[in-house]
């Protein structure tokens, strides 16, 4: 699992936006979609529980900030290592570095299983392709 981030500019070379320019960014451009956040929240609660709009918006802002926080740390690591792509290990390392080490081991297991599943799927796809070629 890799996230291409394109050319990385050192922080000293990133553009400085004025308050007016920042105000032009739409809220939905900065945050995860509220419907996705609400769906995840509902899955972890009993069916009879309702979630207030303000609660959804607060969680939306928090998770969006959390993702930005972790991704920024991963980007810094990539800059130091002169790489242009953030990968799963970078994100896990960032979480540990930022004090979320309780999640590291579980995420390492998840990432390994994800890669194993993707590898098996790729092998199966290649096998299916070979069958088509032989026919």
UniProtKB/TrEMBL annotation:
GO cellular-component term (any): CCAAT-binding factor complex
Keywords: DNA-binding, Transcription, Transcription regulation
Key word Metal-binding present: no
GO molecular function: DNA-binding transcription activator activity, RNA polymerase II-specific; protein heterodimerization activity; RNA polymerase II cis-regulatory region sequence-specific DNA binding
UniProt cross-references to InterPro entries, sorted A to Z: CBFA_NFYB_domain, Histone-fold, Transc_fact_NFYB/HAP3
Transcription factor CBF/NF-Y/archaeal histone domain ranges (all copies): 31-94
Record-linked PANTHER family: CCAAT-BINDING TRANSCRIPTION FACTOR-RELATED, NUCLEAR TRANSCRIPTION FACTOR Y SUBUNIT BETA
Family assignment from sequence similarity: Belongs to the NFYB/HAP3 subunit family.
Annotated protein name in UniProt: Histone-fold-containing protein
Species in which this protein is naturally found: Wallemia mellicola (strain ATCC MYA-4683 / CBS 633.66)
Highest classification ranks of the organism: Eukaryota, Fungi, Dikarya, Basidiomycota, Wallemiomycotina
